[in-house]
Amino acid sequence: MEANKNKIGVIGCGAVGGYYGGKLCQTGHD
């Protein structure tokens, strides 16, 4: 689940900072 959410975050943001980029995007969407 964690990896899946991370992948979605990265794709949605467009490789802002990989893992951290995904986390930040997920937080913003959440």
Tell me the distance between the termini.
15 Å
Low-confidence stretches: none
Largest sheet: none
Q: Portion of residues in helices?
A: over 70%
What is the helix tally? Answer: 2
InterPro entries: KPR_N
Organism: marine metagenome
Protein name: Ketopantoate reductase N-terminal domain-containing protein
Can you put this structure into words, describing what you see?
The chain has two helices and no strands. The protein has 30 residues and is mainly α. It has one domain. The longest helix has 12 residues, at 2-13. The protein is globular and about 15 Å long. InterPro entries: KPR_N. This is Ketopantoate reductase N-terminal domain-containing protein. Residues 8-30 form the Ketopantoate reductase N-terminal domain.
List keywords for this structure.
mainly alpha; 0% strand; globular
Compact overview of the structure:
The chain has helices spanning 2-13, 18-29. By secondary structure, the chain is an all-alpha fold.
What does the secondary structure layout of this molecule look like, with pairings?
Layout: H1 2-13, H2 18-29
Domain Ketopantoate reductase N-terminal: 8-30
InterPro entries: KPR_N
Organism: marine metagenome
